[in-house]
UniProtKB/TrEMBL annotation:
Organism per entry: Chryseobacterium gilvum
Superkingdom of the organism of origin: Bacteria
Protein name: FdtA/QdtA family cupin domain-containing protein
Pfam families (alphabetical): FdtA
InterPro entries per UniProt: QdtA_cupin_dom, RmlC-like_jellyroll, RmlC_Cupin_sf
CDD domains reported in the protein's UniProt record: cupin_QdtA-like
Sugar 3,4-ketoisomerase QdtA cupin domain segment(s): 1-130
Length: 133
């Protein structure tokens, strides 16, 4: 599966709207971990790395930010700014999060527990591994 925007159900209600995701309904993987990124100072960039195995789904629960993906050859930018869709990122994509708005909240779910050994933090190393696949 390629990186893709996944639209989530939107339960419209005068009392306030509700959205959700679950596996296998919306997500292509079972969730093992949830984390979030918040209080990002203006101009900061998070997450310049790739994962060997981990897949992720990222939602802008509040505010907006961009996710920039690189497959080793070309770059693609996804702007996330609504809480009723998110970006699915397969393993082996270099990804960074940038252009955070004030008070933005990035929710990230992953199919794996935290494992520093799954990170590729060097872009040249990432390209070498990706091109060898
Ligand atoms: P990191 O994934 O490098 O942050 P980002 O990709 O957003 O720039 O994580 C920063 C640190 O936080 C990392 O060194 C260890 C810790 N951490 C955990 O302990 N558990 C987690 O689930 C995550 C995502 C990070």
């Amino acid at each position: 599966m390629n990186p893709s925007i996944i639209d989530l159900p939107k339960i419209l209600d005068k009392r306030g709207n509700l959205s959700f995701f679950e596996h296998p309904g919306q997500l292509p993987f079972e969730i093992a971990r949830t984390y979030w990124i918040y209080d990002v100072p203006g101009g900061e960039v998070r997450g310049s790395h790739a994962f060997k195995k981990q897949q992720e789904f990222i939602i802008a629960l509040s505010g907006s930010f961009d996710v920039v993906l690189n497959d080793g050859e070309k770059e693609e930018r996804f702007s996330l700014n609504r809480s009723y869709y998110g970006l699915y990122i397969p393993n082996m994509y270099w990804r960074k999060l940038e252009n955070f708005s004030t008070n933005s909240l990035a929710l990230i779910v992953s199919d794996r527990l935290y494992d520093e050994g799954d990170y590729i933090r060097d872009f040249e190393q990432f390209k070498n591994i990706k091109n060898a696949i």
